Amino acid sequence: MATKLKREVTVLAVIGLICCHPTISRGAEPVATQTSGGWLKWEGNPVLGGKLGTCFDVCVVRGEGKYRMYFSWRPKKAVALVESADGVHWGAPVVVLGANSKTDWEADVNRPVVVKRGETWHMWYTGQARGNSWIGFATSSDGRDWKRVGEKPVLSAELGWEKAAVMCPHVIWDEGQQLWRMWYSGGEQYEPDAIGYATSKDGVHWEKREEPVFKADPASAWEKHKVTACQVVPEGGGYLMFYIGFSDVNHAQIGMARSKDGVSGWERYPGNPIIRPTPGGWDADACYKPFAVFDGTRWMLWYNGRRKSVEQIGVAVHEGRDVWGG
User: Fold this and answer.
1) Is residue 324, in this structure, part of any structural domain at all?
2) 156 lies in a domain?
3) Confidence at residue 31, expressed as pLDDT on a 0 to 100 scale
4) Containing H/E element for 2?
5) DSSP 67
6) Can you tell me the distance from the alpha carbon of 300 to that of 23, in angstroms, rounded to the nearest whole number?
7) Is 150 within a domain?
8) 228-265 pLDDT, tens per residue?
9) How far is residue 232's CA from residue 243's CA, in Å, rounded to a whole number?
10) Torsions phi, psi of 219, nearest 5?
11) Between the CA of residue 30 and those of 17, 91, 243, 300, what are the distances in Å?
12) DSSP calls for 181-240
C-alpha cells in the first residue's frame, strides 16, 4: 500500500509540473530519478549536444524574454552562445570567444561566466595551454561581440594549492561592497581540487584568499576526492552554492551548500548529492558544472553529463524558491 501511494504521489507531482508549464513539450517531461531535495531531471535530456560534439561547463543569463547559454564547445576550442525561450529548446550555436593565437595561454578557451552590469556585459573565462589554465577577462556591449581586456590573464596559479591551474570562474557584483567577487577552482589541470575566492574593484586586478574557502570532505564518499566548479547565488540573506563533488577523478555528482557571507562557515545540504548520474543514461558516469537560475516560480539547473567520453548538457527543475526545505 505504501509503495502504491508513493507511486501515485510521484505521478501527480509530474502532472502538476507539466500543467504549470505548458510551454514545455511532452518530449521534455520531468522525471524523479537520480535526484533528491525536490529536483527533477527532464525526461528529454540532454537539451544540447549530439551532433555538436562535446558541450560542457555553461553559464546561463535570463533576461529580455529569453535565456542565453554560454557554453564550452570543445570541438571549436571556444565559448559559444545559444538562445532559448524556455531554457530547454535551444537555437543554433554561435562562437563568441575563440582560441587566441596571439597569446601563449589561450590555445583553448572555455568555462565562462557572464554578468551583465548596467549596459556592459562582462565575461571571465578559462584559457588553457601547455598543460596549465588561467582566467581571462572580456567585455561586450551586446553579449555577442566580445573584446578581450588586455593580453594577459587576470588570474594565474600562484599559490601552492593552485598547482597548475585556475579555472571555472564564477563572479557576482556586490553592490553593497562595490566589489566583484569571484569563486574559482584551483589545483590539477585534469579536474582541479578545491574552490578559492578573490575580490576586485575593476574585474582585472584581483586579491585572493591564501587558502581555499571550500574543500573536499574526506568523510563523505561522494565528494571525498575533489570539489570544484561552483556557482554562488545570493539567496535568503546569505549565499547558496551549487558545486561538483568527486568520489574519484572520473565520477562526479552535484551538491549544495550555504554560507552567511559566501566565504566561511559553509553548511552542506543534508540531502546531497542533489543530482546523480542515471545508470545507463546520457549522464551515466558523471554530472558536472551546475548553473541554476530562479525564474520567479521555479529553479532551472543546467549541468553537463558524461557517458564514457561524450559530454552533453541537460537540465533539472525545482518548483518553488526554497531548495533547502526550511
Assistant:
1) no
2) yes
3) 59
4) helix 2-20
5) E
6) 14
7) yes
8) 999 999 999 999 999 999 999 999 999 999 999 999 99
9) 9
10) -90, -5
11) 8, 21, 22, 12
12) EEEEEEE-SSS--EEEEEEESSSSSEEE-SS-SB---TT-GGGSSEEEEEEEEEETTEEE
The answer to whether residue 326 is domain-embedded is no
Answer whether residue 1 shows pLDDT above 50.
no
Q: For the chain, first and last CA: distance in Å?
A: 29
Residue 22 has pLDDT above 80, yes or no: no
Sequence letter at residue 210: E
Domain with 137, as residue range(s), is 2-319
With a cut of 70, say whether residue 24 has pLDDT above it: no
Percent composition of the chain: helix, strand, coil (DSSP 3-state, to 5): 10, 50, 40
- Contact 257/245 with Cβ under 8 angstroms? no
User: 305, 312 in Cβ contact below 8 A?
Assistant: yes
- Rounded Cα–Cα distance for residues 305 and 282 (Å): 7
Least confident range of 10-19, 28-37, 84-93:
10-19
Neighbouring residues of 294: CB distance < 8 A, sequence distance ≥ 6? 321
CATH number of residue 68's parent domain: 2.115.10.20
Total count of domains within the chain: 1
pLDDT in tens, 160-217: 999 999 999 999 999 999 999 999 999 999 999 999 999 999 999 999 999 999 999 9
